[in-house]
Amino acid sequence: MNLVDVHCHLNHELFKDDLDAVLQRARQEGVKRILLSGVNPVANKEVLEFVKKDPALLKASLGIYPIDALGLQLDAVGLPHHPGPIDLDKEFTFFEKNRQKITAIGEVGMDFHWASREETYEQQAENFRRIIRFALKIQKPLVIHSRKAEEECIQILSEEIKNREIPVINHCFSGGKAVISKAAALGHYFSIPPNIVKASNFQTLVKLVDLNQLLTETDSPWLSPIKGQKNEPAFVLKSVEKIAEIKGLTREEVARQIWQNYEKVFG
Predict the structure, then answer these.
(1) 238 and 225 in contact (C-beta within 8 Å)?
(2) Closest CA to 169 of 92, 264, 77
(3) For residues 166 and 208, what is the distance between their CA atoms, to the nearest angstrom?
(4) How many angstroms separate the CA atoms of 40 and 65, rounded?
(5) 238 touches 31 (CB < 8 A)
(6) How far is 225 from 83, CA to CA, in rounded Å?
(7) Which helix (H) or strand (E) holds 129?
(8) Which domains can be identified in the chain, with CATH numbers?
(9) Which whole number is the average pLDDT over 197-223?
(10) In the prediction, which pLDDT does 74 show?
């Protein structure tokens, strides 16, 4: 089987002592592609260095996390920190300079878990629209973060991307059935993390969405299927197995289709 992890953070400090072993376990499990996601200028530079370790396996998805864009800092996140608000134009210039090294733009979007909707909606929406327009300009897929902002993100995406000009991948999507259906009708993809084995919201999503619009991710080191153990790319097999169970297919059939989806979306 060819497996893929379209969203993870292997530059997290939790991997500093065992990254080589993590990558080896992924290869042994059949993982053929791992997209490392950046969140700010410092992390994006780090991601570009990380993918040099194994360019065939590791790919770069450079992002502007909505909280980082505002200049807010999460406590003990374990990822590189960028001081102050992000200068979007400066980061867009960096993305363009490294365009040939970038597989996707993400993670980007909106977040009303860590930031107040009332206080930050306008700024987050403006930032998000500018990022979408930039992704359209350079024709790169978008990987979306939409924590507690699912409806807002899908609405803005529907307004900015009219004719499916670029693929949209909803990472770790937790919207309700109506929002899932709207995003699926727009042609969006959804990446499913390994904690689907215990998370009913992801199980519902998989029931509602056609296999042709599903991908697998880990969001490593978070969303582990195993309590008390950090997540890692090898665990995408858990996502594949649960999707297969829900869809009434073999894991080989699911893995084959998800690999085809990956190739269609990311090239």
Answers:
(1) yes
(2) 264
(3) 22
(4) 6
(5) no
(6) 33
(7) helix 117-138
(8) 3-266 (3.20.20.140)
(9) 98
(10) 79
